[in-house]
Amino acid sequence: MTSTASAPNGAARTGPPPVVPLKGAQLALGTLALSLATFMNVLDSSIANVAIPAISGDVGVSPSQGTWVITSFGVANAISVPLTGWLTQRFGAVRLFTMSVLLFVLTSWLCGFASSLEMLVLFRVLQGAVAGPMIPLSQTLLLSSYPPSKAGTALALWGVTTLVAPVVGPLLGGWITDNISWPWIFYINVPVGLLSALMTWSIYRHRETPTRKLPIDTVGLSLLVLWVGALQLMLDKGKELDWFASGEIIAFTVIAVVAFAVFVVWELTDAHPVVDLRLFKRRNFAAGSMALSIAYGVFFGNVVLLPLWLQQWMGYTSTAAGLALAPVGLLAIVLTPLVGRKVGVWDPRKMATGAFIVFALVLWMRSQFTVETDFRHILVPTLIQGAAMAFFFIPLTTITLSGLTPDRIPAAAGLSNFVRITAGAMGTSIATTLWESRAAMHHAHLTELLVQGQGAFATTVQQLQAAGMSAEQAYAQINRLIDQQAFTRAADDIFLASSFLFLSLIVLIWFTQRPKAHGGGGADAAAGAH
Q1: Residues with Cβ < 8 Å from 453, sequence gap 6 or more?
Q2: Which of 28, 129, 273, 387 could bridge to 76 as Cys pair (CB 3.0-4.6 Å)?
Q3: pTM above 0.85?
Q4: What Å distances lie between residue 209 and 5, 137, 193, CA to CA?
Q5: How far apart are CA 313 and CA 483, in angstroms?
Q6: Could you give the 3-state DSSP secondary structure of residue 2?
Q7: Residue 87, Cβ neighbours under 10 Å: how many?
Q8: Domain 1-216 carries which CATH code?
Q9: Where in the chain is the domain with CATH 1.20.1250.20?
């Protein structure tokens, strides 16, 4: 929500009358229009998860390469979020929001038309880049629609859309992939986005925020794109190019390190930095944003890994995998209003600690999965995870933004969101890379005692041949069963390591100071949480 303060600050300078809250049908339709855009944006980050195997098969790549569809969107989105404040003051909140929604519709349409992985990743990068301003500006416009006394209600309504989308996303994505075709997970954005843009423009065009020309840190932005892009390419392509045995991976690594070092020096010395790195001097911001970002990276990596395992090795359809993931939002929807009310009263460090303990429990439960685990046992940890999500974002955002003056909150929220979304994309790459690496190790261990023509191996081959298989088919079937065990054990390794990571991150939370207790923290925290 990098732009929340833009309009008030601009208003103070140019002196227009304060924006009058909307009433009646206009208020209802305005809330609906902004919520639709937010819903579409958040939905797009979860709907593709269950479609990755289908997309990969269609464009002729491995499922691990297919995850680039997720990471490319995340990286581009992360880079564009810190620009929201500058773009808002340059073009106006209403014009920028409407254009962002329309460009999101166009890029969604292009994603559906993509015939190769390269085309799809390119269009997903464009989609992520234009999506950056949508969520923060939807909050800005929504808050301007309600009287200040109703700010909490406005953000609660907005928050419901961001929590319902992760429930609907896997279900809708799975059903569309199985019953229509995967491009329609992108095409459905077209009517929703056009309706949202039309309603927003008709209601808000006379409520445009003041604009003014500000310098933009083009060098800092270029360096940001360079180091984040190089680092993500290194992580995504490393496993297929054998990591540092490849000159390409070494080049990406050198570019990322050098560009990052120059970026840090430039941003600390530039008068108008694209991101305000000085915020990291504040203990609460540094420790809070690190805890939030690393935890989100671990969480998102596991969110992507689970449907891949279910579909590739457990025989689940996209719809069934979506059903296994959908309940994650149920407890979150129920508990988030309580968290919003109590975060200014209770110690948010204790709330976040509770969330991390529940995440650790959930991941430990998943680390016990076997090839025999049934749907009900897969569902239970997913359901419990919703409680952790409710106590995760708002308390940690409250801690991260605490003690900052109002004029610094937009920049702090933008930087925090940039780090978090980038960590999510990198968490996906790291989780899938480790999964394949651990699976190869487990496969080697499982096969090292098998000797062709002897023992249980020979008996199994004979039984399969007796059932009508050729020797080659029998060997392929045995290899498939070994692979299933290997990838299941590898997934368990990732889940268990992630569980311990969540427990270790609790230390970071307690490096922070408790924010001052007050009654209105929920609204502020909710505004920065996404």
Answers
A1: none
A2: 129
A3: no
A4: 11, 11, 22
A5: 8
A6: coil
A7: 23
A8: 1.20.1250.20
A9: 1-216, 275-530
